[in-house]
Fold these 2 entries.
Entry 1:
Amino acid sequence: MKNIFLGMAMSSLVLAACNSNKQTNGDAKDTIAKGAVTAEANKVSAIDAVTKDYLKLKNALVEDNDKQAAEAGKSLVTSLAAVDKTSLSAEQAKVFEDINADAKEHAEHIGSNVGNIKHQREHFETLSGEIYDLLKADKATGQKLFYDNCPMYNKGKGGNWISETKEIKNPYYGKSMVDCGSVKEELN
């Protein structure tokens, strides 16, 4: 009888230990899965923050508002600095590395040129190309965006920009020719 009781006690301990180990392994798997989701969320939020600040800048230029454009340019510098390259895919990280310094420089120029919207727009043109490259590498932005073109800007050489709406709102001519341009490409 004593052996039966001792055997049952030992079995209970072994089962408890096995269940505890399964729970620990489950917790570890959950932690890893949560880490992967967090890394994906960081990637999305980092690229989304850059996109959001770029669109604020574009919209300020559409409204001919050099002060808001400067504020958005400064915010864009901060967003670019906050991107964690380790959370990006290899392709995205390479593109980000290629565009980051130039994009920051153009955003800084826009941020420091209140009162000179023409100069802000000149930097915006090059910045738009940099952001376009970044968004093309980010295959899953989750946001429908449009790559637009104004054929008249820059003495007929044209200028491109990214928009969150299909409706043309030209940042190069603002209110004077707000609907000048066309959609070249849909991004998502």
Entry 2:
Amino acid sequence: MGLSNTSARLRRTASAVTAAGLVVVSSGCGMVGGSAASAEGVQLEPLSVTSPTLQDGGPLPSDYSCHGSMGNPPLRWSRVPDDAKSVAIVVDNNNSRTGAEVHWVVLDIDPRTNEVAENTVPVDAVEGRTTNGKVGYTPPCRRQENYRFTVYALKGKVDLDKGAPLSETLRSIADMTIAWGRLTTTNIE
């Protein structure tokens, strides 16, 4: 019984840390009127994020959820600023009832890279921990959620080890973001 209470307390703490990290990321580089703004209020050019299998505003194909077996969907991006030193990807949902969940974090992608293939990680990129503590793509499960696939252009390399704590990873991304773009799916097919 004590172990169960400890586990529940740890899950609540992890959720609170994750939610705080997401607030840092979204407040540090939120979209305002169709363009990105930094924490300092400087207007940033948005990245264009697309996918051959996802449509912005469309459903997430169940193959990329916990009901399928395809792993991460392919993503493409463009308009990375010339001064970017790396790119990061964060896949999350923001559920007002249960709090935010991060399903995938990829760091230190070469800024000349403009896509990630299905069920792969770019060469020399580093995966961070997700909300559930695992490293790698954690397929979404909640059918009635919106899932956000956000690509960040960064002014430096995050330079954290594989599996670094989620709060540290998200804070580093927020601190270095110079541009970002997002593709959002609505619900799981």
